[in-house]
Amino acid sequence: MRALTLIVLLAAALYSGWWVLGRGQTARVLDETAQRLEAEGWEVAWDEVSTTGFPSRFDTTIDAPRLAAPEQAWTWSAPFLQILSLSYRPTGLILAFPEEQGVTIGGEAIAVEAEGMRASFDLTLPPGLELTEAVLESGTTRLEGAEWTAELTTLLAAIRRAEGEDPAYDLFARATRIVPPGLPEAALPPTIERLEIDALMSTDTVFAAASAGEVRPTALELRHLTLAWGETMVEAGGRLDVGPDGVPTGRIDIAVRNWAPLLDTAIAAGLVPAQAAPAIRQGARIAALGQSDLTLPLVFEGGRVSLGPIPLGAAPRF
């Protein structure tokens, strides 16, 4: 019995040492990550870092974290950020966000209020630390700018490594009861009931600690996109291939049930120039053969993008 007691005490001592080592590793990884981002032009700062949870957890709290993208393209700040993991499974991480956060985009300050916002990450073991899955969840989320507000009731976004040798990731996102900003009274109600996206993204390399910021998409297969808004339903699917220059080519087929209210709302919101509205409306009627349902291709070709016969301008770069 004495020998068994000594073994238990030795195991406890080793486990305690593992926890202390893990706590030190957490601080070191945070410092190294900050240094790497700063070398790439980011600004990273916080007031204090502390880790608790002995003996079975690593619960790290970062006080007053602040992050700014290169050239201040956007910034993020919060009173705190928690990074949670089990000491026997340190590659499974949970990020717990405070209810109030601050964001600036293009110099505009945006106040964020999010209920229960959390992000989880699953990584492979070192030295690879490759991303296998990440999930972001939030309850009621409200964004408030200087002269506008937007809100949604639930948000779920996920990325998961797809099976196969070539790097590819399943993408999924769903948001419910979305209230867009600055929407005037129009043909559609003020709340979008549901937006859902399911896609497969191929990349040139895997998402990993060593490749952060260097992953480039090579193809995007849109399995489906669904937008439910009042009596209007939008569904889309297709594929884009992305060249070495980041320019996409391909086609997304878009089907709209009850298209007229959607066009009326876009015109009222200023998304469609008033002078072009009559021609676009007439073109939609012709394409729909006078019916309430409409199907049009969104075509990416030669660095340009068009919706059916309507040119929309330069294609985005990935």
Explain what you see.
- Helices cover 19% and strands 49% of the residues.
- The longest helix has 38 residues, at 2-39.
- The radius of gyration is 24 Å and the shape is globular.
- 11% of the residues are buried.
- Strand 14 and strand 15 (168-178) form a beta hairpin.
- The protein starts with a helix and ends with a strand.
- It has helices at residues 2-39, 259-268, 277-287; strands at 43-45, 48-52, 57-63, 66-68, 74-77, 80-86, 89-96, 100-105, 108-114, 118-123, 131-138, 141-144, 149-152, 154-161, 168-178, 192-203, 217-229, 232-242, 248-257, 293-301, 304-307, 310-314.
- It has 318 residues and is of the alpha+beta class.
- The protein has a domain at 1-96.
- Strands 2-3-6-7-10-11-14-15-16-17-18-19-20-21-22 form a 15-stranded antiparallel β-sheet.
Q: Enumerate how many helices there are, as a single number.
A: 3
- Biggest sheet layout: 15 strands, antiparallel
- Into which percentage range does the β-strand content fall? over 45%
The SSE order reads HEEEEEEEEEEEEEEEEEEEHHEEE
Uncertain residue segments: 1-18
Structural class: alpha+beta
Residue-averaged pLDDT: 87
Report the count of strand segments. Answer: 22
InterPro entries: DUF2125
Organism: Wenxinia saemankumensis
Pfam families: DUF2125 (PF09898)
Protein name: DUF2125 domain-containing protein
